[in-house]
Amino acid sequence: MYLILSFVLLTATEGDTAQKIVHYTSKNIVYYPKQERVILLDSARVSYGDVVVDADSIEYDLQTKTLSAFKNVVFVTGSEKVDGNELYYNLDTKRGFMRDAQTTVENGFVDGKEIWLVKEKTLHIRDGYYTTCDRDPPHYYFYSRRSRVLIDNTAIAELVVLKIFGVPCAAAPFWFFPVSKQRKSGLMPFKFGQSNTDGRYAKGVAYYLVINDYADMTFMLDVMEKKGFQPKLEAVYIVNPFASGQIYASYIRETQTKRERYSINAKHRSQFLFGSNLNAYIDYQSDDSYLPDYAENQIQWLKKEIYSQVSLTRDFKRVGRTNLLVEQKQDFEKLTTEWKLPSVGISFYRLPLAGNWSLSPGISFANVEKKYDSTETNPRTRVLTSRSINGRLGLNHPKTLLGAFDLPINLNYRTVRDEYVDSITNKSEEISGGTGFSTSQTVFQTLNFSEAISYNHSVLWRDSAQSNVRYDFSLNSNLTLFRLFDIGVLGIDNVMHRVIPSLSYNITPQTRNYGIWGLPRFDTIPKSSNIGFSVNNLLQGKFHKSGEKRDLAVVSFNTNYDFQTQAVSPIALNSDLFLLSKPNANLLTNVNLTIPWWSHNKLNLRVSDLTVNSSFFYNFTKQDTITNIEQGIRIGLNHLLAYTTSQSGLVIQSNMVNATMSVIPRGWRFDLSSGINFKEKEKITNYSVTVYKDLHCWEAVVDFNKFGAQWAYDFKVRIKKIPDVSFSKGILGFMLPF
Predict the structure, then answer these.
(1) CA proximity to 472, closest of 425, 515, 525, 508
(2) What gap in Å lies between CA 649 and CA 218, rounded to an integer?
(3) Contact (Cβ atoms closer than 8 angstroms) between residue 2 and residue 18
(4) What is the C-alpha separation between 728 and 712, in angstroms, rounded?
(5) Rounded to an integer, what distance in angstroms lies between the CA atom of residue 213 and that of residue 236?
(6) Is the peptide bond before 178 cis (omega within 30 degrees of 0)?
(7) Is 698 helix (H, G, I), strand (E, B) or coil?
(8) Average pLDDT, whole number, for the chain?
(9) Which residues contact 331 (CB under 8 A, 6 or more apart)?
(10) Lowest CB count within 10 Å: 13, 18, 260, 352, which one?
């Protein structure tokens, strides 16, 4: 007869009136009153608070509160579980040890001949190993004679040996790794290696500091034999919705060159004083070769321009918005640095007036300084400073007899100072103002008209005052037409053709001095006048199988006639041809033509410039829903072909192909990419080859790439869940060579 007996023992702790309860159950229970011992046989369990012990048999001493468990022992405390064959544990002191034990930690497993629980959430392990491999026996493991595991924190081991298939491959005097699901402060793994440029090095020596739930910081140090010490700092903070950002900075004083070099990159967004919003982006480096010398990203190798900006904005309820902007641009190739210190703008919300009229005022101020560094061809350093203040009023009406109406009013003042280091200075001042109006109409929702008149008056003071008045007039119209064609070929039921022809006329007449306004003159040849014509076409097909509508082609062209020069501009034709558009494959061709079709009063249809840009992408990969393993192939091709006119006719200006391909058989991945310029002698401009092999708990990666004149290669075998542990080119992970 299957019988389960259950006893509850109540004991009182000294100085505490509350009672602690020990529960124990089993199929067979033997109780010895004189010895105060309980023996549990077959499916035994003892629970005490958050501690639960399961085993084939358990012996419990009521006096000492010590239990001994044998065979198939499972020890659980809180969310942690340890399996073993033999357990000795004191319920009061919460100390004990287990033989032939195994427990799971973050990303892996810890086994030990003996695991001692010396205090809550602290384990000492003798003759233990750690692995992320779930095979039995594991493909690899880290063996350590002694180690300590701080549960939900860090594991620290001494004299660590990496064994692959039981063969020692590497060793280190100590090792540590995180075993926490939460962010924890502590040292991070680093790597040793050797290179021609750096010599012997240790990189990534770092301490990770968790400041709070919203921010952390990493202090890093690279030690290089030939270059010296390079400290780095990285900080990240996210306190939504109040603030977020990140900071990355590095510095080095090179041993050989004695140069001080540095880089700072920071982003910040936050709420600021008095309800304002602060946004900042800082990108600064000591010289244009710092990133190519120290960055591992290919894109950064060619970075020749840096940009920084800080803006402060605030919205005033029912009033408007203010904006304060400070920015810097530095171009290393052009040797220019531009500062905007500062730019201030105030824009007011639209103010309603009588009769549906409204007013949109605003004012802005800018102080811009641009520095041109000296070069061999221009040995003088030039500084160009410009200060300006601009005011505007916008008068609007959504609907008048002539349609929507806009009347902008602008007033500007600017000073310019152009100076050199040898005291050559030019100064000028300018005040200008302008107004005008524009309106638009729509007829039958297909025919659109718009008209605009603008007036600008400027006075420039340099050696003397110069006044300039300008009027501009423009007329525009366009018509939208549709036509549906039933074709029933290539799986297409019908094609919709939408065409929008547009016509525009612009004239800037001469002016006559008359008071401060001046008057436009239409009795003489204008300063400029032209008429323009354009047509935009869209072809869209409807497919009978899927019923979806898909763009087939977009074609547009434009030209204009200049009445002053009596010249017709070349036709500029642009077309996008969607030759193939599938979920797993597409082919797009863009064609740009320039045709000087009319010259010397005769028709001359010849192409002066031609650009054909074709892109093809094919993706035939499948992913196993159970194993999550992907297999298949991806191909990407881009071809740019450009012609231009010369004395001998059209010649090739550019003929470039960029190709990418990923071949993914089971357990492998081959990534290939290359750029080929058929116009140059060295046709291959860049290429990269990456070979990846899945080794169950390991992965092997071989990588070679060339970009311009720079190239790099690497090969490594690394643990998937601990990628910092790797065998690579001159690097043995972060462990010492054996």
Answers:
(1) 508
(2) 61
(3) no
(4) 13
(5) 11
(6) no
(7) strand
(8) 84
(9) 304, 305, 337
(10) 18
> Among 24-33, 491-500, 618-627, whose mean pLDDT is lowest?
618-627
At 256 the three-state DSSP class reads coil
What does the alpha-carbon distance between residue 304 and residue 300 come to, in Å, rounded to a whole number?
9
Mean pLDDT on 626-642 = 88
Q: What is the pLDDT of residues 505-514, one digit of tens each?
A: 999 999 987 7
Residues with Cβ < 8 Å from 617, sequence gap 6 or more? 585, 586, 587, 634, 635, 636, 637
Residue 23, both tokens:
């529960």
Domain boundaries, the chain: 5-184
Distance CA 354, CA 135 (A): 81
Question: Which of 727, 732, 720, 713 is CA-nearest to residue 298?
Answer: 713
> What number of helices (H) and strands (E) belong to the chain?
2, 52
Condensed to tens digits (0 to 9), the pLDDT of residues 255-296 reads 888 899 999 999 999 988 888 899 999 888 888 788 777 776
- What does the DSSP assignment read for 199-217? EEEEEEEEEEEEEETTEEE
> 379 preceded by cis ω (within 30°)?
no
How far CA 86 is from CA of 34, 127, 270, 653, in Å, comes to 26, 16, 57, 80
Q: Which of 134, 135, 156, 136 is nearest to 145 (CA)?
A: 156
pLDDT of residue 156: 81
Pick the CATH number of 5-184 from 3.50.30.10, 2.10.110.10, 2.60.450.10, 3.40.50.720: 2.60.450.10
Q: What is the pLDDT of residues 187-220, one digit of tens each?
A: 776 776 666 678 888 888 888 888 888 889 999 9
Contact 270, 244 (CB under 8 A): yes
Query: Which pair of tokens denotes residue 453?
Result: 């008149």
State what percent of residues in the chain have pLDDT above 70: 89
**Does residue 356 sit in helix, strand or coil?**
helix
Portion of the chain with pLDDT greater than 90, in percent: 32
**Which two structure tokens, joined as six digits, stand for 119?**
């205090």
Interval 319-338 mean pLDDT: 88
Using CA atoms, how far apart are residues 452 and 362, in angstroms rounded to an integer? Answer: 22
Q: How many CB atoms are located within 10 Å of the residue 192 CB?
A: 19
Confidence of residue 364 (pLDDT cuts 50, 70, 90): very high
Nearest to 260 by CA among 230, 282, 233, 226: 230
Count of other CB atoms within 10 angstroms of residue 73: 25
CA neighbor of 618 nearest in space, from 632, 639, 605: 632
Using CA atoms, how far apart are residues 209 and 231, in angstroms rounded to an integer?
16
Residue 70: phi and psi, rounded to 5, are: -135, 135
pLDDT exceeds cutoff 70 at 365: yes
Tally Cβ neighbours within 10 Å of residue 599: 12
Asked if residue 70 lies in contact with residue 85, where contact means CB atoms within 8 angstroms, the answer is yes
Query: Rounded mean pLDDT of 470-487?
Result: 92
Tens digits of per-residue pLDDT, 558-582?
A: 999 999 888 888 999 999 999 888 8
Bond before 137 cis per omega within 30 degrees? yes
- CB-CB neighbours of 108 under 10 Å: 21
Separation of alpha carbons 218 and 225, rounded Å: 23
In whole angstroms, what is the distance from residue 718 CA to residue 198 CA? 23
Whether 261 contacts 249, CB under 8 Å: no
